[in-house]
Amino acid sequence: MAAALGLARRGLGSVWPNPSVGCVVVGDGRVVGRGWTQPGGRPHAEIEALRRAAAAARGATAYISLEPCAHHGETAPCADALAEAGIARAVVAVEDPDTRVAGRGLARLRDAGVEVACGVGRDEAAALNAGFFLRVTEGRPLIVLKTATTLDGRIATKRGESRWITGDQARAQAHGLRASHDAVMVGIGTVLADEPRLDCRLPGLAGRSPVRIVADSRLRLPLTSRLVKTANELATWVVTLIGAGSRRRGSYRDAGVELIEVAPAEGGSLDLVAAARALGERGLTRVLVEGGAQLAAGLLKRGLVDRLVWFRAPRLIGADGLPAALALGVDALAKTPSYRRVSVAEVGDDLMETYERVP
Question: Is the pTM for the entire model greater than 0.70?
Answer without folding.
Answer: yes
